[in-house]
Amino acid sequence: MQNITAEETKGMNLTCGLSGRHQFVFTVVPIVYGCNFVIGIVGNSMVVAVIYCYIKLKTVANIFVLNLAVSDLTFLITLPMWATFTASGYHWPFGEFLCKTSAGLAIFNLYTSIFFLTALSIDRYLAIVHPMRSRRFRTVMYAWITCVLIWVFAFLLSVPIVLTREVHNFSNITMCVILHPSTVNYSLQELLLAISLMKSLLGFLVPFIIIITCYCLIVRALLRARHIQKSSRSRDDEVLRMLAAAVLAFFLCWVPHQIFHFIQLLIQLKVVENCGIEDIVDTAMPFTICIAYFNSCVNPIVYGYVGKNFRKNLLRLLRCSPNKATGPHPSISSKMSALSFRASEALSLTVKSKASSDIK
Question: Where does the record place a coiled coil (predicted)?
Fold first, then answer.
């Protein structure tokens, strides 16, 4: 997880030494990784089990939520290795293959999680604001095609991390790191710069703008519908709280890491050349990564456990109740889907009323 800045010499001399090596980091971070692993594995496994056993994959939202949970699970299995890596003072005992694989899965999860959250936000926007016009695009087939494209695109974006992550020995310590060479190797330096820029732009900024835009348009549509249908206030408030929780969780989990990642990018570009600042960044980065990875634990809560139907099916799963054929079960987003039709009806009434007033 740690980036090391090195000069290309035979002895691999470090410009600022092994910065960020503090005992409290080696103690606190592995504990947080362990908590993230347990909570994330249990939560996402419950989401997968409930969708598979009771809810089924009959809606676009359910497909995205399932893929999001699977994406989180594929990353969470690497957390014990990163916890061991940090607890042993950044010593990597698992070999180069697992070093590359674990680093690749970490960045792979960053992209897949954010892309699936973005796809889910766009789907919610289409379902609530344009339910009738978007019906032919919001099909199970198109949802699976979107998921395949997201997996492939995220895989391609994670390949450079796999190629640049290596195992090196520093002061009798075997570390899994990304080496930032001197300006002698221009091609490698440009590749590392491109990786950092893609992580900031495609891994956070662009998806965050799309998510915020979708939810702002959803809120505006719901508020316009509320003026016409006063009776739906309580259900509207519940949907608004869920949307606000999703955006807030995304923001709080990823912004600290992206801020320090941007400072690290300035160090990489040699805009900032201060060993004190580099030590602060290297010390804070593991904690910001902990917060970012906690998003894998929050996702099941925000997109699954807030639904009454999901909680009901979760209790059935824990009690080992059979899946009786008593009729179709509503999806995770049933409340939002029902609300989308009421919102569209209200909006259409508004348009009709304005048209009739214009005629008069």
Answer: none
Cα separations in angstroms, 326 against 54, 208, 323, 331: 11, 40, 9, 15
How many angstroms separate the CA atoms of 213 and 358, rounded? 31
Q: What is the mean pLDDT of residues 56-81?
A: 87
Dist. CA 303–CA 105, nearest whole Å:
23
Distances (CA, A) of 182 to 178, 189, 276: 13, 8, 20
Mean pLDDT for all residues in the chain: 76
The pTM for the full model equals: 0.77
Q: Work out the end-to-end distance of the chain between its first and last CA atoms, rounded to an integer number of angstroms.
A: 68
Q: For strands 165-170 and 3-5, give the pairing.
A: unpaired
Summarize the confidence of residues 241-263 as an average pLDDT: 81
Instruction: Give the CATH number of domain 3-350; options: 2.40.50.140, 3.30.300.30, 1.20.1070.10, 3.40.190.10.
Output: 1.20.1070.10
> Which helix (H) or strand (E) segment is 327 a member of?
none
- At residue 130, does pLDDT exceed 60? yes
Given phi > 0 = left and psi -120 to 50 = alpha, else beta, which region is 354?
alpha
CA 78 vs CA 49, 58, 203, 258, 322: distances in Å: 21, 31, 20, 21, 33
In three-state secondary structure terms, 324 is coil
Phi, psi (deg, nearest 5) at residue 168: -135, 155
Separation CA 39–CA 24 (nearest Å): 23
> Which residues in 275-304 are b (16+ Cβ under 10 Å) and which e?
eebbbebbbbbbbbbbbbbbbbbbbbebbb
**What pLDDT, on a 0 to 100 scale, did the predictor assign at position 339?**
44
**270 pLDDT more than 70:** yes
Q: Is the pLDDT of residue 316 over 70?
A: yes
